[in-house]
Amino acid sequence: MSIGRDASGTRKANSVVAYARGLCKYRCMRTLAPVLRLPRPRSLATPLVLLLLAAGSSACSSSKSSSGFANTAPTGPTGSSGGFGDGGTSGTIGGNNPNAPGGGGGNQAGCSDAAKLVYVVSDSNELFSYDPAASKFAKIGELNCPSGGETPNSMAVDRSGTAWVNFSEGSLFKVSTADASCQATTYQKQQGGFVRFGMAFATDSATSDKETLYVVGIEGTNGGKGLGKIDLTTMTLTKIGDFSGDLMGQGAELTGTGDGRLFGFFTTEPSATLAQIDKGTGATSGETSLDGVNTGTAWAFSFWGGDFWFYTSGGGASTVTRKQTSTSGALSTAVPDVGGFRIVGAGVSTCAPTTPPSPR
Q1: What is the pLDDT of residues 127-142, one digit of tens each?
Q2: What predicted TM-score, i.e. pTM, was given to this entire model?
Q3: How many domains would you assign to the chain?
Q4: What is the CATH number of the domain that holds 243?
């Protein structure tokens, strides 16, 4: 749910990915200035898209403030490597969690309507809410966090509706989704070598309202540092492990669900990759090539209503692409131009629906 940049302010760049038979390709440097794209081989075939399977439902509960700052940080044990819905290593991408009880609407007991929305932050420090069902963005305000002039890199939203924003120099702030006001935290920068990171909350299981903040370290042109988690009580970061196979060492954005799942939006070329992430080990499964979707110079994503929503920019205003994993699995453009701003972080709480809502 974010984008990164290096210490000099440049956008995070994808690691050099080795093609089969010794060929190499390079992703673009992610900068706030015009993008430099290095040439890559044109003769290689696009990886085959993995088949998607449908499944299940979801559930659980929590009760915190409707929006703004929570009284206490979300706590709870980390997820396990059990069934697919609990962050396991087999199953389908997206859709519903077969391990979650109830009607499949999501882990929403005690949640406010505001906590069920998606929130995005721009590279100009603007905070917006996004209602995917209405395809509508609404500006909340501008962040004024004491970040020394640095800009937002990534964002996650907890069950209380409070946003947690990582800035490009490594700081972590709490931001109210009611008025965009900022509050400093005691998080110490660069723990475990993580400066910029993708981030998301996910519940600890399909039947729990406890949640954990997961992060993926972003490391300039060298890709990623694997999966970690931040304990918001002690403000300590713990490394969990790297991703699997071709995604090892790769940078990613994250989104989590109220039924215990965690997903990554990986900055692969020529098309981005979607995969589920085991919360206990960092292992990836269900890798799916997102044909025609490129992370560009700014990227983020969210899981809402059983579908994935990707926010990408090649330099101008962001575009929203939807992957309908709740139904056909098709990719389509949901919003061609979000309104002139560039999204660098997106957060959705574990209160968000995990199945398509009823038509309005």
Answers
A1: 999 999 999 999 999 9
A2: 0.75
A3: 1
A4: 2.120.10
